[in-house]
Amino acid sequence: MNTLFYLAVILFTGLLFSWLMKLVKLPNVTGYLIGGLLIGPYCLKLLPVDFVEDMNLVSEMALAFIAFSIGSEFQLSYLKKVGLTPIVIAVMEAFAAAILVTAALALFGFDLELALLLGAIASATAPAATIMVVRQYKAKGPVTETLLSVVALDDAAALIAFGFAFAAVNTLSNPGSSSLLLSLLSPVVEIFAALVLGFLLGLVFTIVLRRLKNDSNRLILTIGFVFLGSAIADWLGLSALLLCMCMGAMVVNRAKEAPAVLRLVDGLTPPIFLMFFAISGAELNIAVLPTIGLVGIIYVITRVIGKILGASLGAVLMKAPDTVKKYLGFTLIPQAGVAIGLSLIASQSIPAYGQTIRAVVLCGTMIYELIGPAVTKLGLMKAGEIKAAAE
Asked: Rounded distance, CA 230 to CA 339, Å?
């Protein structure tokens, strides 16, 4: 069968399972993941392994548009109103998860290098599933507003945490082989470069956008710039999420055409997001579940505790609304692309722990992605930000 046939199967499966999820009151994204898992190469085998592995392009497109949409939430008027609250919460929840996972693994006698790397990877949160739940149920309120900002900043916090952990592990494993200072500065430089390039691309985007009056041309221009931003980030080894997010932030603050552009993007992205999550589900190999052992159990449980405690502590420090203190942490459970990417870097650079790290992160991803959207929905409902009409 050719690629278009498999894409059709994915789209139909996603539609079917989104309908089934409505019957049990779960988010669509959970249906996409479960549907993809069932038709994937590790269950019913309707999709071959080669096809799933070759679909990185869909993932890159989806994540680029998700990051662009997240950036569009960073309006200066909103940032002036909330101040440093999202930044403090993002740092607290990311580093609390990292510290708690590292400490728990070390306490149970696992090697410090393994504990540091898994702890840093635990800090990452997947924005895609969270954003899909917010969009589906049209959630609105202080928890939703804070959540959108926090997941946008989480990528930067995770990269910094991993950079520090990676530098420490390199120093422990190969003392004297490289400069600790340079290793620690590397992730900071990468993040800064992604931010600057994103803002510059966004500025160019807005200048060209002002000269276009036709919706078709505006959509073409938007797709072109989002693809270009993701490609440049990949070429330079930077975070495509951060770069495209900054581009979206520049556009929403500098272009009066931004609302029209975002409406056009919202009409384009649903099938891309469906394919992205279904393919993510197809990549999950349930056969690796029994291999994670105690280290995996500790990772899965303590990461969730760290996210919830860290988000609550950050909200308390910044005197955020009570609903943010109580429920924000429950919306930060999903974990996917960034964590898998960091696990690949860790396993290639520190081969001694490679197999364990990959197995733990992949199993954790499967568990978090399947239960995370439902818990996110529950948290937003408890906060009173999903209306009954949205059901």
From this structure: 18
- CA dihedral (305, 311, 317, 321) in degrees, to 10, reads -120
Residue 25, CB-side half-sphere exposure with 13 Å CA sphere: 9
Rounded-to-integer distance, Cα 259 and Cα 262, Å:
5
CA dihedral for 12, 17, 22, 23, sign (positive or negative): positive
Q: Are 351 and 105 in contact (CB under 8 A)?
A: no
Interval 88-133: pLDDT, tens: 888 888 889 889 999 998 898 888 888 888 888 888 877 777 777 8
Single-letter code of the amino acid located at 172: L
Q: Judge whether 151 and 336 are in contact, CB under 8 Å.
A: no
In Å, what is the CA distance from 259 to each residue of 72, 115, 218?
9, 45, 12
Over the stretch 172-182, which tens digit does the pLDDT of each residue have?
Answer: 666 655 555 66
Give the dihedral of Cα atoms 190, 276, 52, 340; nearest 10 deg.
Answer: 40
